[in-house]
Amino acid sequence: MTDPFGLEGRTYIVTGGAQGVGRALAEFGIEKGAKIALVDINAEALEQVADEIDSPNLHCISANVADETEVNALVSETLGHFGDLHGLINNAGIVRAAMAHEMSLETWQQVIDVNLTGAFLCLRAVGQALIEKAGNGDAAPGRIVNISSDAGRRGTIGQINYGAAKSGVLGLTMSAAREWARHNITVNSICYGVVETPMTDTIRAEKFRDRYLKQIPLGRFAGSEEVAPATWFFLTDAASYVTGQHLSVDGGFHIAT
């Protein structure tokens, strides 16, 4: 039977993969036959993921996505281990909450470094590899998905650094999509709402929960397993003519008043 996803045997890098959404994304890809280089700064957590998934199609790499040298090295390691590369899910991100008038420059910069500069570094390194493949006559499509957020489309309260970074990811997506279409590389973004993950647990007070739940038409937060299929759509052959797009997977939050 023909693989309807077109992922069988293809190799993808997934960043921020030691827990939550990143891990769910990796598990979904492996289930569909993809090979995954799973990247996270937390080496110990990655080891646990590797033990629990226990698949030859998973290779874990500890790296800081905000470090240019480490990003270039992780792409080289992926190519060395799997022998090929077809795309990227740019998922790594952190949260450092504070109101704008109380936020330190350090707190601002930490989030920008990981969520925006890190996304750029990974996109650039993977894009360079995919463009080189295309130049060598490899007709396989390149696929990049950047994980943004509704915070980047609507703004947010208490996380101006996060909202600014995720808004920047949308511009990054559209610009790369325009530049790299000539190389048969598509670049799209997913805008998550609130997903039940360890990261969001750190900021989820009852006041936060109540305020956001009232704005979500579906009336609940997403499970990480619910956002993975929509994300992977952009990496499948079904999305071969889709680029520069932003898809909200948020229970309707972006249309709520």
Describe, in plain words, how this protein is organized in 3D.
- Residues 10-198 form the Ketoreductase domain.
- It comes from Parasphingopyxis lamellibrachiae.
- Belongs to the short-chain dehydrogenases/reductases (SDR) family.
- It is globular, with a radius of gyration of 17 Å.
- Strand 2 (35-40), helix 2 (43-53) and strand 3 (58-62) form a beta-alpha-beta unit.
- Helices cover 45% and strands 17% of the residues.
- It contains 9 helices and 9 strands.
- It has a single domain (11-248), classed as Rossmann fold (3-Layer(aba) Sandwich), CATH 3.40.50.
- The chain is α/β, with parallel strands linked by helices.
- The mean pLDDT is 91.
- Strands 3-2-1-4-5-6-9 form a 7-stranded parallel beta sheet, with helices on both faces.
Name the features:
257 residues; globular; 9 strands; seven-stranded parallel sheet; Rossmann fold; 9 helices; alpha/beta
Q: Which geometry do the CA atoms define?
A: globular
For the secondary structure, the number of strands is 9
The percentage helix is 40-55%
Order of helices and strands: EHEHEHEHEHHEEHHEHE
- The strand line-up of the biggest sheet is 3-2-1-4-5-6-9
Give the number of helices: 9
CATH class: Alpha Beta
Q: Cα-atom Rg, whole angstroms? A: 17 Å
Question: What is the distance, rounded to the nearest whole angstrom, between the alpha carbons of the first and last residues?
Answer: 45 Å
CATH superfamily: NAD(P)-binding Rossmann-like Domain
- What is the fold-level CATH name, i.e. the topology? Rossmann fold
Q: What is the SS-derived class?
A: alpha/beta
Mean pLDDT: 91
In CATH terms, what is the architecture?
A: 3-Layer(aba) Sandwich
